Amino acid sequence: MFFVLAGVFDPQAAIRLRLDRFSGVPAGYLVVNLQYRNRSRKALQEERALFLSETENMNHQKYMQEALAEARSALAAEEFPVGCVLVQDGEIVARGHRRNSRAGKSNEIDHAEVVTLRRLLSRHPDIDCSSLVAYCTMEPCLMCYSTMLLSGIRHFVYGYEDMMGGGLNLPLYQLNPLYAQMQVQVEAGVLRNESLALFQQFFRNFSYWQDSLLSQYTLAQPLQDT
Ligand SMILES: [Zn+2]
Question: Do 37 and 65 touch, CB atoms closer than 8 A?
Fold first, then answer.
């Protein structure tokens, strides 16, 4: 009986939840987060621009540039151009990019986020993942999102939306208690244009997901001059 009660009511978890929601989080973040599930991606980008301070935007771009460097490494290896960095207290603690997306040896496990998280946990198995921010050049898929959530990560920043297989609009509140109580922060569209440019290069030259809905959508997106 004790274990059942402990599982249902965990005072430490409850405190963490309050701190996540109210400690040191700018008001704009809360507005974006609480309304996330009802907002279009375009509306989210507009809200992000309104609510985030200049400093927050600059920091997001700084780390996203590092994730983009990983994505460019993937593209140079003819891999699907997704990069990821994990940041703790302003320091990059792990980085990685997509592997094994090439024809003949492709799998759907070695995504950039999973590769990066594995790398982090192999070096720092006891790290508190709740203090991490995940910077991903593309919106994480359902596998990567749930893997990072279960590992404790709650703050996600991404560049280009995955309108075909992105997982960040997963309605956590409709799922079982473990997921329903999770409070997640999401920032969309950070350096989107740079990430989009890589995907357009990829879909013009390589076969992975070629002619997919994502490929068609990506190649139809206007690219801004930089
Ligand atoms: Zn993924």
Answer: no
The span from the CA of 201 to the CA of 80, in Å, is 10
Cα separation, 190 vs 27, whole angstroms: 19
pLDDT per residue, tens digit, the chain (226 aa), is 233 333 333 333 332 332 333 333 332 333 334 334 445 655 655 555 556 777 888 999 999 999 999 999 999 999 999 999 999 999 999 999 999 999 888 999 999 999 999 999 999 999 999 999 999 999 999 999 999 999 999 999 999 999 999 999 999 999 999 999 999 999 999 999 999 999 999 999 998 898 899 999 999 999 987 6
Active-site residue flag, 56 = no
Ligand 1 center to 137 CA (angstroms)? 11
Give the span between the Cα atoms of 187 and 26, in whole angstroms. Answer: 13
CA angle 191, 123, 188 (to 5 degrees): 20
Candidates 156, 215, 166, 214; CA nearest to 188 is: 156
- Neighbouring C-beta atoms of residue 224, cutoff 10 Å: 10
First CA to last CA distance, the chain:
61
Catalytic residue among 70, 113, 161, 194: 113
What is the rounded distance in angstroms from the CA atom of residue 199 to the CA atom of residue 215? 8
The neighbour count for residue 112, using CB atoms within 10 Å, is 29
User: Any idea which residue has 């704009």 for tokens?
Assistant: 28
Neighbours of ion ligand 1 (CB under 5 A): 111, 141, 144
